[in-house]
Amino acid sequence: MSIVKTAKKDRVPFGQKAAFGAGHLVLNLYPGALGFFMFFLLTAFGMDPFLAGLLGGLPRFFDAITDPIMGFISDNTSSKWGRRRPYIMVGGILSAITFVLLWQLDENNSSDYNFWYFLIMSMVFLIGNTMFATPLVGLGYEMTSDYNERTRLMAFSQTVGLLAWVIVPWFWVIIADPDIFSNQAEGVRTMAIYVGVACLLLGLLPAIFCRGIDASHMGNRKKLTFRTIFSNLKDLFISIKEAVKNKPFMKLCGATFLVFNGYQIVASFSFFIFVFYIFNGSYEATSTWPAWFSSIGALVSAFLVIPIVSKMAEKWGKKNAFIISTALSIVGYAMKWWAFTPDNIWISFVPIPLMSFGLGSLFTLMMSMTADVCDLDELVNGMPRKEGTFGALYWWVVKLGQGLALVLGGLVLKLIGFDGNAATQTVETLTKLRIADIIIPVVTAALAIWIMWKYGLSEDRAKDIKAQLEERRGVL
Q1: Share of the chain above pLDDT 90, in %
Q2: Nearest to 190 by CA among 37, 26, 31
Q3: CA-to-CA dists, residue 230 to 127, 217, 421, angstroms
Q4: Does CATH number 1.20.1250.20 belong to domain 13-211?
C-alpha cells in the first residue's frame, strides 16, 4: 500500500501534539504512581491486606459508572472553549489536588480510619480524573480527520505517555531508601506532592493549547444543563447501545481486553522470577534489576517500537500493523523461557524489544482505529459525534481488564502454590510460575489476532466514509 501525503489542513501542529502528549503523560503517571504507592498501604501504614485489596477494587466499580456519563456530557457540551477543554481544565486541577490529599495518610491513625479516608478520597479523585481523562481521550479522536495523521498523533502521545513507566518503577526504590526519607510513610506523602504538582502543570497544557471540533457546526446535539442532565440519561443509554452495535469497535475492545489483560495478569510474575528463580529468594541481590527491566521495556516501547509501528501502519494499514506487532510479542514472550536464567542476568533483557511490540503498538493503533470508528458511527447514526462515549467505553474495557487481572493474577499464584511469605519456592512452583508467565500472554495475544483478522475498516474504507461525511455536512 502506498503512503499518501497528509493534506496540510489535516495535520496536527507540533505544539498541539506536545500538549496532547503531556496529557497522556498524566494519564499514565496517575495509575503508575497509584499502583506502586498501594504497596506501601501494607508496609508503611500497616493496613490489612484484605482492606488494601478492597481499596484497589471498589473504586473501579465507581469509575466504570462515571466514565460513560462523562463521555456523554462532553459529547453534548457547547461552549466558546469547545466541548472538551473546560472539563480537562477543571478535572486536571481537581485530580491533582485530591491525589495529593489522598496520600496524606498518618501511620499513627487506626487502620479503619485510614481505610475510610482513602476510600472516600479515592472517589473524589476519580471524579476529577474522569473529568480530565475522558474528554482528553475524546479530544484526541477529533483533532484530525486524516487516517494516517491519527496514527501519528496517537504514536506521539503514547511515546510521551510511556515515559511515566520509565519513572514510576523507581518510586519504590526512592521511597524505601532510608537515606532519602526517615520512613516509608513520609516518603509516600512527599512523593505524592511531587506527582500531584507535575500532573497539575502537565494536565493544563491540553486544555490550553489543543483544538477539537467546534460544536456550533454540529446539529442534533442534546441541550445539557444541570436541570436537564438526568432527563437525558435515556439518550446516554441509546448512545452506548449504538456504540456496542458497532462491530469494528467491539473487535477493537475485544482485542485490547485480551492483549492488555494477558499482560496485566502476569505483570508481577517477572519480579517474582527475578527474586525467587534468578536470585534464589534474595531481595538484596535482586536489588534494582526489576526496576531496570521495567524502565528499559518502557524506553524500548517509546523510542523504538512506536515509531516502527507507526510506519508499518502507514505502509501496510493499521490492522496488519497490529497483527504483525502482536505476533512479534508472542515470539518475545516465548523467548523468556530461555532468557530468564540465573547463569547470566543480562540475557533476561534480550526478549524486551519483541515483547514491547505487544503493548507498545496496542494503544497507538487501537486509539487511532477508534477515531476511524467514530466516523463510521456518524455515517450510520448521524450527529452528534460520540468521541467521548466511544473513548469512555474503550477505557472502561481497559479498566475492567485491570481489575480482572488483579483477581486472576492472584488466583494463578494460588493455584501454582506460590507462597509470598516463604524465603524460597519449590522447583515445581517456579517451573509452573515460568510457564504461566509465558502461556497466558501468548494465548491472549493469539486470540486477539484471531479477533482482528477480519477487521474491515481499512484505509480505503475510512477515506470513503470521510468523503461521504464531508459531502453530507461539510468539513468540521
Answers
A1: 43
A2: 37
A3: 17, 25, 50
A4: yes
